[in-house]
Design goal:
The complex is a heterodimer of chains A (580) and B (343). Chain A has 580 residues and is of the alpha+beta class. Among the domains of chain A are: 114 residues, Alpha-Beta Complex (Dipeptide-binding Protein, domain 1), CATH 3.90.76; 237 residues, Dipeptide-binding Protein, Domain 3 (Dipeptide-binding Protein, domain 3), CATH 3.10.105.10. The two termini of chain A are 52 Å apart. Chain B has 2 domains: 95 residues, no CATH class; 228 residues, MetI-like fold. Helix content of chain B is 70%, strand content 1%. Chain B has a two-stranded antiparallel ribbon with strand order 1-2. The radius of gyration of chain B is 25 Å and the shape is flat. The model of chain B has no long low-confidence stretch (mean pLDDT 87). The chains are: A alpha+beta (580), B mainly alpha (343). Chains A and B meet through α1, β9, α7 and α13 of A and α2, α3, α5, α7 and α8 of B.
Chain lengths: 580, 343
């Protein structure tokens, strides 16, 4: 039954057809030619005026981008906190403003950046008045008004919607008002310096989603999250083929009409396959590359790899909580000895690319404007490390090769997740620390367990470590705010299980500075405060930088005018052009 | 026959119930879905607590299982966090056809499976046809020319094919036929995806994109399966009834394909019968490398996110398919070998 002649013939025919088609077809359809256009940077002080309507646009060409992860939804902020959803948002859903390659704000929906001088920011910093650009409309032509902002706030805070994050509205916003269609007034509960990077990074179209909310009682299942046919940006959603691609087409109603006809985002989950697609010229921009790929990609001669500061730096977060840490960790000289005894420079040289991932010093070295200008990483100096340990009283009294004090062996618990790069580094560090008489217990957790909170037995939250290694960033780069990590009342414990301070560090001077920067709206004054904050953390050695962790992108020579930024990478997508 | 089929289906109900309990228990070990929702930036502890409460993940496991099974529209959920339930749940449970919604995409699991299943069936169905055809052809050829030079070459090639890791083979093919062929100016194949969005989902375009994944999956399976066919054929070709058929003057091709292969195919049918349910599950590694939008890739993507409603949906779908296709395999036995009686 299985081998009757017709089956053979049909099957053979199918195979032959497939092979024939593959052998004879030269490849994908050619992309229409488009000459490179001169780049013109948008002003960051003035919004495009409604009196100068855009000329009739002539869109041409298509850019292809590869993502190694598919966004879970396109409603970033409410129903997704994925980075890939966030960066895709730049094409179809602009916020009040974006940030350019220098991390300077570029006006989008807003007509101006609120300040005390222009009346947008109250003296006490607790009232922010947003003035909207009247030229901005939704992609379907409906005017975008302050009512959309009020609706967005209400939907984020509604108990009917299971939103992923209510930050910063839950903690810092008291109410949002719409006194007129072009004005939004945000009443804050406190003076909140990070408003520039966290308030209204996305806005919902009330005219589309309010009927959905009223009929379903929730936005949780709204089709719009995966098919937002109405948006506000240079492109508008066109198609989402799950696990295959996303397509955005040019939005002629946007205030800066794009030059490209469409953006295609292809999902290529395997890193090696993405690299092959980049090398084959199947993609114009490759996203989220690994440092190990840079040399191979640039060797091709047609591809440029660039890094952008996304705020992330790899580091050791040292536990100094007297109730949970090894007693040696409470001595700053021991903590300093850990940094001196570890050759972070050769580790970066061997495992990464020191030009892309140099050793960092502070938590903010990849946050533009807040990187240290005065501090240098401690050198690799095992002799000095040994001297500091001797001075601290940690010596090998029992001759077992590990230092001890008061019958306590100097064996530290060094934890991280299961990323191979980090596990390799753990093995190297174990040998280097052993050379100065420090023992280590290496522990690796799956990422979900590693990040669990106190009540879920998270090893960091419960202080079950001495050295924790991971890559971390401020809450909303380029804003440097990350104070909760080091505030005294945030130390996690049974009485305070939601506390964000997992290092157990409490320093009144540092806390005063952290509180002050949180309400300092003047960037220069805030930077000065951060220099003091960084100095204290460096002197106290609670944070040991390992490497800068920029986001890496490949840019093929076929695409022009790409000026990626850290906070909003695709901010100037309207200027991109392609050549075949 | 009808009684047999009905009895088998009735037996399947407790089987599937036990499987669902075991799988649901195992899901607790794959990680905390709330912790991975934030991806690069983990949710704040208070956000995690709120999400657990709103999604019902703070309930004891037996209540969560009951909700998965029978829904939660008969329960009041505490959405506002005041400690008192006030909102009826939205779920109807798998017993009423609701596999739940993905925790990450918020889509109904049924919709997600329905979107990916045709793609997987296309890839895996084509692959299975290629495997069957080539395995039978190579196996029969090797058996008829036992110990010949051709048989030796095929045997060696089979062992090489069987030994190749699928991810290595896939990437090597991609670099050779997509990257290097393009550089050398030769006709080349596309790297990833099911079709180029610029061209559209045209049959020819999809066929081009299928060549490498189908070849990757087939080479390894054909290498193994052709050995089964070869040994079965060798066993049957030495049976008395084959000698009798030849002595009666029956034509050689009829002896081989009608008398010998039909009987030699029984173990092969068992293998294929076991394979078919897993065709629906897709090929995890191959789909991931070639970015094929199928069930296998969806499974691994959602394992990474600990998205247990999607994982439970896929696994229960496969469990059901195993039950159905095992029954179909048993029925096929009785057709191929009249000595087998279902009763």
């Amino acid at each position: 039954m299985l081998v009757r002649k017709p089956v053979w013939i049909v099957a053979s025919g199918l195979v032959a057809l497939a092979l024939l088609v593959g052998a004879c077809t030269p490849g994908a359809a050619a992309v229409p030619t488009q000459a490179p256009q001169p780049t013109s940077a948008p002003s960051n002080t003035q919004a495009p005026q409604p009196t100068t309507p855009p000329a009739a646009p002539e869109f041409s060409g298509s850019a292809t981008i590869t993502f190694v992860q598919e966004p879970d939804t396109l409603n970033y902020g409410m129903y997704s906190t994925m980075w890939f959803s966030q960066i895709a948002q730049q094409f179809w859903s602009k916020g009040l403003w974006s940030f350019d390659e220098n991390s300077e704000p570029v006006l989008e929906i807003a007509a101006e950046i609120p300040s005390v001088e222009n009346g947008g920011l109250s003296e006490d910093g607790q009232t922010i008045t947003l003035r909207l650009n009247p030229a901005v409309t939704w992609s379907d032509g409906t005017p975008l008004t302050s009512e959309d902002f009020v609706f967005t706030y209400e939907m984020v805070m509604s108990d009917a919607n299971v939103v992923l994050s209510r930050s910063p509205y839950e903690e810092h916003v008291a109410s949002v008002e719409a006194p007129d269609p072009q004005t939004v007034v945000v009443h804050m509960t406190d003076s909140y310096a990070a408003w520039l990077t966290t308030l209204f990074t996305t806005v919902l179209p009330k005219h589309v989603l309010q009927p959905v909310f009223e009929s379903a009682g929730t936005l949780d299942g709204a089709e719009w999250h995966r098919a937002p046919t109405v948006g506000v940006g240079p492109f508008v959603f066109s198609e989402w083929e799950p696990q295959s691609h996303l397509i955005f087409t040019a939005n002629p109603n946007w205030i800066r009409p794009p030059k490209l006809e469409q953006i295609v985002i292809r999902f290529t989950p395997d890193d090696a396959a993405q690299e092959a697609a980049i090398l084959a010229g199947d993609t114009d921009i490759g996203v989220f590359l690994d440092a190990s790929q840079v040399e191979r990609l640039e060797a091709d001669g047609t591809i440029d790899v660039v890094g952008t500061p996304g705020g992330f730096d790899e580091a050791w977060f040292l536990n100094v909580n007297a109730e949970t840490a090894h007693p040696a960790m409470l001595d700053v000289n021991v903590r300093r000895a850990l940094a001196l005894a570890t050759d972070r420079f050769s580790i970066v040289e061997d495992l990464l690319d020191p030009e892309i991932n140099p050793v960092n010093v502070t938590f903010w070295d990849n946050t533009p404007g807040y990187e240290t200008r005065t501090l240098e990483p401690l050198p690799y100096d095992p002799d000095e490390a040994a001297r500091l340990l001797d001075e601290a009283g940690w010596v090998d009294t029992n001759g077992n090769g590990t230092r001890d004090k008061d019958d306590v062996e100097l064996v530290l618990r060094y934890i991280t997740n299961q990323r191979e790069l980090r596990m390799n580094m753990q093995a190297v560090v174990q040998q280097q620390l052993a050379a100065v008489g420090i023992g280590t217990e290496l522990v690796n957790y799956s990422s979900d367990v590693f990040w669990n909170g106190y009540n879920d037995e998270g090893p960091q939250a419960k202080g079950e470590y001495d050295i924790a290694q991971y890559s971390s960033a401020p809450l909303g780069p380029p804003d440097p705010e990350a104070s909760a990590n080091w505030e005294c009342d945030q130390i996690a414990s049974a009485d305070n299980p939601d506390g964000a301070n997992w290092q157990g560090y409490c320093n009144a001077d540092l806390e005063t500075l952290l509180d002050e920067q949180a309400v300092t709206a003047d960037p220069q004054a805030r930077r000065a405060l951060y220099e003091q904050i960084q100095q204290i953390m460096f002197d106290e050695m609670i944070y040991v930088g390992i490497w800068k962790d920029p986001d890496l992108w490949s840019i093929h020579e076929s695409i022009q005018n790409v000026r990626l930024s850290g906070p909003t990478p695709f901010w100037n997508a309207h200027e991109w052009t392609v050549t075949p | 026959m009808v009684t047999y089929v009905v009895r088998r289906f009735l037996l399947a109900i407790p089987q599937l119930l036990i499987i669902s309990i075991v799988l649901f228990g195992l899901m607790q070990a794959i990680g905390d879905p709330i912790s991975t929702l934030g991806a690069r930036t983990p949710p704040r502890p208070e956000e995690k607590a709120r999400l657990r409460r709103m999604l019902g993940l703070d309930q004891p496991i037996h209540i969560q299982y009951l909700v998965w099974l029978a829904g939660n529209d008969w329960l009041l959920l505490d959405m506002d966090g005041d400690g008192v339930g006030e909102t009826p749940g939205p779920r109807r449970g798998i017993l009423r056809g609701d596999l739940g919604n993905s925790l990450v995409t918020r889509q109904p699991v049924v919709t997600m499976i329905a979107e990916r299943l045709p793609n997987t069936l296309l890839l895996m169905g084509t692959t299975e046809i290629v495997i069957i055809v080539f395995s039978l052809a190579i196996g029969v050829y090797s058996a008829l020319r036992q110990y010949s030079a051709g048989d030796a070459v095929i045997t060696a090639a089979s062992f090489i094919g069987y030994s190749m890791p699928v991810f290595w083979l896939a990437l090597m093919m991609m670099y050779l036929f997509a990257v290097n062929f393009k550089r050398w100016g030769l006709p080349y194949l596309p790297t990833v995806g099911m079709y180029d969005p610029a061209v559209g989902a045209e049959p020819v375009e999809i066929a081009r994109h299928m060549i490498m994944p189908v070849a990757t999956l087939s080479i390894i399976s054909v290498a193994g399966y052709s050995r089964y066919v070869r040994s079965s054929m060798l066993e049957v070709l030495h049976q008395d009834y084959i000698r009798t058929a030849r002595a009666k003057g029956v034509r050689e091709w009829w002896v081989i394909f009608h008398h010998a292969l039909k009987n030699a195919a029984l173990p092969f049918v068992t293998l294929i019968g076991l394979d078919i349910p897993f065709l629906l599950a897709g090929a995890v590694v191959t789909e991931r490398i070639f970015a094929w939008p199928g069930m296998g890739r969806m499974f691994i993507d959602h394992v990474d996110r600990s998205d247990y409603p999607v994982l439970m949906g896929i696994l229960m779908f496969i469990a059901l398919a195993v039950v159905v296709f095992q029954l179909l395999t048993d029925l096929t036995y009785s057709v191929l070998d009249p000595r087998i009686r279902l009763n």
